[in-house]
Design goal:
23% strand, globular, 13 strands, alpha/beta
Length: 141
């Protein structure tokens, strides 16, 4: 899957961050935050093929969050810590609907669909569909 200009920009400031050009990376991240109202720090891990439709409008990602390959993260999604716990780890081929909130040191398995405006605070096994507040497994393969 070909990456769009948005992910190329994110990868640029991640390369700057990893090569110890921290000030430049922070400047690029700040510029993107101003342009698109999203907070995707250069220190988070984003797998190949992952896409952010709508230029990640309103997306907030924890600095130590890990997003797997071929994921799709829609607008206004929050991936953050909870009560001082670490960030979530998102598996491969995960679809995260708009407005979803995933909090805490939890693991989201592979091939999971998370419905719009869901609140996920517990581990989710692979091949599941999660909806609601708090998120509950609607379907498990």
């Amino acid at each position: 899957m070909k990456e769009g200009i948005f992910l190329k920009y994110i990868r640029l400031y991640q390369v700057c961050w990893n090569k110890q050009f921290r000030l430049l990376a922070k400047l690029l991240a700040f510029l993107y935050r101003v342009l698109f109202s999203c907070d995707i720090p250069p220190s988070c891990e984003i797998g190949r093929g992952t896409s952010f439709p709508h230029y990640a409008l309103g997306v907030t990602v924890h600095p130590r969050c890990s997003i797997g390959e071929n994921c799709k993260v829609y607008q206004h999604v929050t991936l953050g810590s909870r009560n001082g716990m670490g960030p979530p780890i998102i598996g491969d081929n995960v679809l995260i609907g708009s407005g979803a909130i995933i909090l805490g040191d939890i693991k989201i398995g592979n091939n999971v669909s998370i419905g719009s405006n869901s609140l996920v605070i517990n581990d989710i096994p692979s091949n599941s569909t999660v909806v609601g507040v708090p998120g509950r497994i609607l379907y498990k393969d």
